[in-house]
Design brief:
Four copies of one chain form a homotetramer.
Chain A: E1 2-6, H1 10-21, E2 26-31, H2 35-44, E3 48-50, H3 53-58, E4 64-67, H4 74-83, E5 88-91, H5 98-111, E6 115-118, H6 125-135, E7 142-150, H7 157-162, H8 166-181, E8 186-194, H9 199-203, E9 209-216, E10 221-227, E11 235-242, E12 245-249, E13 257-260, E14 265-267, H10 274-277, H11 279-293, H12 303-322, E15 326-327
Parallel strand pairs in A: 1-2, 1-4, 2-3, 4-5, 5-6, 7-10
Antiparallel strand pairs in A: 7-11, 8-9, 8-15, 9-10, 11-12, 13-14
Helix pairs in contact in A: 1-11, 4-5, 5-12, 8-12
């Protein structure tokens, strides 16, 4: 499959390399508003660089699209690709505005093109293995889910200002993971938080330390904690507890080396951030997208999943503002 | 120090053995409403068995008191012992009624006798080591605390009915641990929960699965989760996260034996329940009590600590009923 | 059982405390050539201190003997105790001279008194659990055994000179453990080693770093490595590998606390030395001795076991000298 | 770099995929005596399949050679490639006959072409990290090295018969690792072993369970244990102990998922075999080969390393036959 990659930034570069190296795909074109960036990334893999997304999407050779641009362009690009009947992979989120998301998804639905959303953690082998075990019933009926997600360092306040806030920018991954793990939809959410890491984040109107509790109709409880700054690295853990036991997925250490010294026993700290933590997940996303585009699989992350995570993030923000739990619109 | 032990039940038996074996203490008398139980436990260690608490407390040989009776007798026994000017160790809680606790503590304070409360986990070497590290600043400024506490099997609904409910009966230990770890008092609490383990507990008006979030004035967040039934054993873990890193205390396994089989790698599950999980803590409580009674140490768990944990438990219950966070009376 | 403790040194003090605290035993007398040491230890537990071993053994109140004196006195004291028909616990080794051991054991056998030898590691709960699993067949037919044993710091060369050498002084524990684990007797041993830690040990005619391979008739292989200096603490590990899998027993850490820092993830180093590593083993030795003395159990470590470990240690030394494997006399 | 791959078997397929996907290399041709195998593998990556090694090596487009054929053809192919002045990557061993190895290496040396040998474990990130730490002196002066290497299942006796035996076929990797870790050459080796896994291996004149002790001039000791059958998977561990502490590299588990059940705590068993255990190592080998071919790095595994490991394997076999340690020819 010849793929057009839209967006030559950090995450676009990951996908470009994977598309090039995958036996089932080929990087056909790279589009970016920055011509030099598009050209440089394209040339690395023998593809065409361009700043003209319409021209590239009109190219009959293009068979699929990866959307890795900034969030505010996602809806427009999804719509263009769906008009061209091209299978779409889009980085999360679809948009920060729920109404725009709804309009976009109904267009996609009408067009019939498959859309896979980039919630990368669903594709991580550790979390995937845990979720498969949950689905096989190894934990029994789910009673408690706990998700920890902490970034190594806070983003600059300027980014925070346009990010949509911690719930829509960061915790949205964990809210999606909660839905991925729980066998049913949450019906209520309580969110709280503080600005403890960087006062500039507070001045930008956001928090940097957050906790959320979700409750499902059946009464299962899910807790999420986020911090924008874990000095020991990228901290991503999951725990699922139920009537038959508990399943945990821990941070995989870069190496298994243990050092016994005069003072302590030392092992590796976790990976630094998502690019080195989730390389297999990005490769698995591509594998999956190619299967979906070929009609051999249903999307593991649908547009509806993207919408549902955004609904939870919005509800979390509302709960934070009101200082009490709010119901989740079903 | 010659000690009178009041209450010959499960926890009384632990203290009796420790008092007998400790070089600095001697079991002088055992009192229980069940004469046979008092006699049997007393004889095991060469002490006197009795059903008459007043007679025993009037015995001039008695130099200290351990109160291990049912909760509803604690206040009366504390008052008797404080009138006799005897140093007191009392199992938690002082009482489920805050007004009675206040009256009791002001009497104790007037009498000047030292009172040590039996929040055993403060004395556990693993948690103690973690807390010492927190106090040394190894985690930096505390931002997130997470406490997991799950019992192996639910109590009978009949017990639940008189227990004061999950917050005052079970989570009170975790609420005390939260105060022990945080460098400041919580100002707000949100509690939620479900009855997922045993419908009989729901019929008794209680829940068996609970989550709580505490917030301090500075904005630090503390999460506690409780379940009445963890099939893999007694699950007691702590995590403290801050500006300089993270500290965790895990479940100590009974042995370090690992089995590599055709199917998986197996290690021991956690200890079954508190009696086998916390033997060192009970010994350390006695060590500490003897130091306090000798005037060489201040109580690590005061009557005020007992009161403060009860205030939190009561606030949790109120939050659960109201369905929203409530402020903690300071 | 009223026990006479012979030897008030480091290990004698451990046994004295355990004997005092055990509900089934009482410390009746402490004998040491150093009168002050005997007195001081005896007074701590309300026992009699003495320098006269014959007088103490003649005391009709004495019902059992713990021999914790220096190795060169063991045989004489065992014989005295066996003439008095007293059940005997004796620290390892019986003697460094095999002929003396044989004479001694045949006297003990004639007298019919039970003799339990102090190979403490057989009583450690971790190793005991591993060995029980091995006996239940969890590893299948044993093919490979690996035993690691490293002390935290070398003894002074003066001690080394009279110690009998690393095989008889230190590795003898591991040789006994090898026999404890293997289902059959070794038939061949190869030993090698170096002086890498302290040249003074080399000058004293010994090595401080050693490796041994034992082979059983069936062909199972057992490897032991020893070092006199592990800067990270007392390192005692076992691995048993067989047709059905592998069992390992690791160093139990003092606490389960884990620290995540900017640089690494840190856990506790192992215990410092045998006194803090094996407290449960010493208590279990006493439990076992009391059961044996009461006729309710057969010795878990017999005089024959002590002899067999010495035979292996002697063979190791011979192999080291000859520079090649030697057969084990059966 | 356009690469000709000789040998389309299991390991050749690994290298073919890596060469194809690497940005700095291209799979130009695949040669195999089995025409269908050559064609099938070549076509997967747009390369030419052939049975004619001379024709392929004569192709001026070829810039480098990967030799992945059966051992008995290695020398001939190395010589052909070196005559063509092509940089060579060759799977271990060069040959089982030391004289042929010497002739071959002196030809390679004369030709000046770089030769990298495929001791894959040197390139594994876990072992590489451990060795880097050793080289930085984190363990201090090396005193004890322990290498465990166990295959999941024994090869058929027919393979064993032509394999050169366990030391040259299997332990040769560990002997190379020993040299990689030790800062000096071994001067003596003792080998022992048994046939415990499959009597057919014994009938083929080999053993399936082996232990070796190496000693360096300075007196450092290195132990290796091998088994042809570990039911729990591919077991590859290293321990380096020295004057400043200990470093260990463990088996990396496929996932970090832990399961807490009614009976035990379960984690993943190790990877099944080398293909899934060492994918990063094979990629790193290729990276390294391209650097060496470009003159930007010296080979991490030279022909001399291949020879030295074979010398150790031969000496191990001699020791096994003689039943005593033998000196290593220097």
């Amino acid at each position: 499959m010849r793929i057009a990659l839209l967006g030559a930034g950090r995450i676009g570069q990951i996908h470009a390399a994977n598309i090039h190296h995958h036996p089932g795909s080929q990087l056909h074109a790279v589009v970016d508003v920055n011509a030099a960036a598009a050209k440089s990334l394209a040339e690395r893999y023998g593809a065409k660089g361009s700043t003209d997304v319409d021209a590239v999407l009109a190219d009959p050779a293009v068979e699929g699209v990866f959307i890795c641009t900034s969030t505010d362009t996602h809806v427009e690009l999804i719509l263009k690709a769906s008009q061209r009947k091209l299978p779409i992979f889009c980085e999360k989120p679809i948009d920060l505005d729920l109404a725009k998301v709804d309009t976009c998804l109904s267009e996609v639905s009408r067009s019939g093109v498959p859309l896979v959303l980039g919630f990368n953690r669903r594709f991580d082998p550790h979390f995937r293995s845990l979720r498969d075990a949950v689905r096989r019933g190894e934990a029994g009926d789910i009673e408690i889910v706990k998700i920890t997600s902490r970034d190594p360092a806070p983003p600059p306040p300027a980014y925070v200002r346009v990010s949509g806030g911690i719930f829509r920018d960061m915790m949205i991954h964990d809210l999606d993971m909660a839905r991925f793990l729980l066998a049913e939809e949450p019906v209520e959410i309580f969110a709280t938080g503080s600005c403890l890491v960087d006062p500039g984040i507070g001045e930008a109107g956001d928090i940097d330390t957050a906790m959320v509790i979700l409750k499902t109709r059946r009464g299962a409880l899910c807790h999420i904690d986020n911090s924008r700054r874990a000095v020991y690295g990228y901290d991503q853990r999951i725990e699922v507890f139920g009537s038959k036991g508990m399943l945990q997925a821990a941070n995989p250490p870069p190496t298994t080396v243990t050092r016994y010294t005069r003072d302590a026993v030392l092992t590796d700290k976790p990976y630094n951030f998502f690019l080195d933590r989730y390389p297999e997940a990005y490769r698995a996303e591509l594998d999956h997208f190619l299967e979906v585009a070929a009609g051999r699989a249903e999307p593991l992350v649908t547009g509806h999943d993207g919408r549902a995570a955004l609904v939870l993030a919005d509800a979390a923000l509302q709960s934070l503002k009101l200082g009490k739990p709010v119901p989740i619109p079903q």
